[in-house]
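Progress narrative, work stream C.
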Amino acid sequence: MFSKERLKNRRNEKKLSQSEIASKIGINRTAFHNWESGKSIPNQKNLTALAKILDVPVTYFESEYNIVNNYLQLSPDNQVKAEDYVEELLLSQQASNVIPLFSVQVLSDIQLSAGLGEGFFDEFETETVYSDEEQYGYDIAAWIEGDSMEPVYKSGEVALIRSNGFDYDGAVYALSWKDSVYIKKLYRDEDGFRMVSLNKDYPEKFIPYEDEPRIVGLVVGHFMPVEGV
């Protein structure tokens, strides 16, 4: 997981200001400040640029960097002891009824209408949220806004999306159309898609193929992030 503390400490070690690094990368200072405050994390392109500017490997910014490096320096016998000790700690933690949390990287401040493709995740910033259940089988996590898909999909939840095309009528998809992204039930007609909301207060919409709508992917799950983490 990206460590804002390691970024800030290394920047201070190199005696560089936030503005100086932001200028070298080609972003504004606010975007860099958000990385150090934990509001967002750099994408792969910016992470690589940071590593070059601060003269460290890309893995340096991971919170687990010191743990992994220290472990690799141990002798084989001590590595086994370290693994045993970690297992003991986990058992002790479970006995204390500590609820494990699982991190999910959610696309933040993004226009999915830019389209998918190879390297999609490298193009956008993400923020970290937590779920009390481990999430599987998805490629993209994005925020749900509005009440058109209630009562199933609630505003403020995170939608888990598997990147693929249209599979079958009536499934819930994320669809990019005219610079907006919709999470709706889709039905394929001869000349376009019908978007149907679960909330009956919203009328269905017809999207002609000539408008070049793009299916971002199939919504395979959703959850409300754990607050106060």
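Work stream C, second folded protein:
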Amino acid sequence: MRTILIIGAGRSASSLIQYLLNKSEEEKLHLIIGDLSLASAQSKTNNHRNATAISLDVFDKNQRNAAIQKADIVISMLPAHLHIEVARDCIVYKKHMVTASYVSDAMQELDALAKENNLILMNEIGLDPGIDHMSAMKVINEIRAKGGKMLLFESFCGGLVAPESDTNLWNYKFTWAPRNVVLAGQGGAAKFLQEGTYKYIPYWNLFRRTEFLEVEGYGRFEAYSNRDSLKYIDIYGLKNILTLYRGTIRRVGFSKAWNMFVQLGMTDDSYIMEDSENMSYRQFVNSFLPYHPTDSVESKMRLILKIDQDDIMWDKLLELDLFNPNKKVGLQNASPAQILEKILGDSWTLQAKEKDMIVMYHKFGYEINGKKEQIDSKMVCLGENQTYTAMAKSVGLPVAMATLLILNGKIKTPGVQLPIREEVYLPILKELEEYGVIFNEQAVPYLGYNPE
């Protein structure tokens, strides 16, 4: 039996573990699932004879090393900042490693050591990053192979709620880490290229600069700009491209409503609010509004945000029970962003039988034989329930597939890498189609932009 160590048994690990267990007999696999919570690890084994759950504290070096030494390959599903210690141990004990997270500077520094030891440290092999890389590089390389010159690349992705589970005015529920949703777009201006001109959108204006998208059978969506699109110039080899833009997909109207929280300062994570534990939701809201001896919190809120009482934006705020004087925050030493996350969790948590949805949309504009052409590639993936979500499927399955390809010697290139080579993306994209992750590519008229 070949041993796969999976560190971290959170939400995104469900489909990953199920896939590997389904393959365990024919592929002769034994899974060791390690998590700080033994109960969480045990819940993911499904009582399968080829799975063992262990309690694993990743900060306990001896415990971590002992587990890694027993493995043939390691999958880290830990928070991104914790991968690096696992990766260093993997190099010491000569084990391949797979993660779904972005390559950090510290991880990239291990590239030479990984190559020296003929080890693969595969990163960014989840959804976004991951499936976005693979589906983009497939089409970009096909365009290059027939002599085309890339002019435009736009890429959009979003974790959303499936239509049948869309039950609130925001048309949104948490399908991934809620904290990441609340903090989205912070840490610097969004940067991208448009018709050869560099463009920048500061955080305070990010959610008012959106692009509209149409997906057949699912209606209209909007997208706001991701933080740094420019880094993909080098990653995808798009040195002379004119337009390069990546964005996050939401249902139309979400960004305008979310902007209310941004403008009030409720998404700020840089300071602690006094006595947050005993604060009511209403007091939290009032903390961001000016004092007035007679006006209500509701009146001050509408005045500050310039919204009328019959505006749908107001209904969205009321739906969140923001003005309830009896609901307590209950979080010690919490930042505004942490409190907002807690409040939103009351309304936006996916229930047991509810389904989520992933939408990905690429636009490829190129010139070939003097003619400008465009291909649009769209993918919609639906979840099954609260456990086997579209998010868990689209993050976990590529990780599992890459792990098996590495174990079987099908992926051979050593080093710290992304899934942008054919040996990685061709077999994984093909197999993902069996699980409902299917890209529909269509030739459409080329849409250039006014450089102004």
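The mean pLDDT is 93. No further action is required on this item.
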